[in-house]
Design goal:
single chain; 248 residues; mainly beta; PH-domain like; six-stranded antiparallel sheet; 2 helices; cell projection; repeat; DM10_dom; cytoplasm
């Protein structure tokens, strides 16, 4: 039954015509009844050269019993941002107004609301079209996600060779790989199980010609003719010494 009510500019919720409302108090009728709205806002990135802003998703909770509003940002693991409750439960005034507060009719899909100087747009944001390679986004999406594969390397054709059982880890965050060797308790081998440290591997392996002359690329110390002073990269196949008689 609807009865006439006194005019009250702060009366909530605004689900009824003016001077019309339920006979019972709203805190009894709408007790523990909460509406949730999906929304988002844009935060400017001043110190990030690759992007001008980031889109942050939030949930707006509207409590029907007293017209209060709470804004919560869902927590994301390893996001590097302060998340959780952004605006505590309270009644929020409409900007440039003394006695008007936000109500449930102000949270329609597609509308923008301003809470304490921050503009929220009600609704789900459109998914942006990112370029193919975005290291920062890839790190946020796939951090701590690793694919594990099992394999082996048959080295029994060489002298003292054996069958190496391997465990391959592929890190989705930066597309790196590492390989560990699985040693049994009775293998009789000591040392680390790291077969290949974490790195990015090329798809095509270029074999180095061991007969290739690379002496012209070495920097030698003219004051000491006893040897080569520059360090050799890992892919070089050997080292020679420069003597007075020549290379031997």
């Amino acid at each position: 039954m609807l009865v006439d009510k006194a005019v009250n500019p702060n009366y909530v919720p605004s689900l009824y015509c003016r001077k019309m409302g339920p006979e019972l108090p709203t805190w009894i009728i709408y007790d523990k009844q909460i509406l949730r709205f999906k929304a988002y806002f844009q935060q400017s990135l001043v110190e990030w050269p690759h992007e001008s802003h980031v889109v942050r998703k939030v949930d707006i909770f509207f409590y029907l019993e007293d017209g209060t509003i709470k804004v919560v940002e869902p927590r994301t693991g390893n996001s590097g941002m302060m998340q959780g409750v952004m605006i505590g439960r309270q009644r929020i005034r409409i900007p440039f107004s003394d006695d008007n507060y936000y109500d449930v009719i102000d949270l329609n899909i597609g509308r923008e609301v301003t809470f304490f100087g921050k503009v929220f747009k009600v609704g789900a944001p459109a998914e942006p079209k990112y370029p193919k390679h975005r290291p920062f986004k890839q790190f946020l999406d796939f951090d701590r996600q690793v694919l594990r594969f099992y394999g082996y390397w048959d080295d029994r054709d060489s002298m003292f060779g054996t069958l190496h059982r391997l465990e391959i880890h592929y890190f989705l965050a930066d597309e790196t790989m590492e390989i560990k060797e699985l040693l049994s308790h009775s293998s009789g081998r000591e040392g680390t199980t790291m077969f290949l440290k974490r790195m990015r591997l090329p798809r095509i392996f270029i074999k180095v010609n061991k007969y290739l002359s690379w002496w012209s690329t070495l920097s030698t110390d003219t004051g000491d003719s006893g040897g080569v002073t520059s360090a050799l990269p890992a892919f070089w196949v050997g080292i020679e010494y420069l003597m007075e008689e020549g290379v031997r």
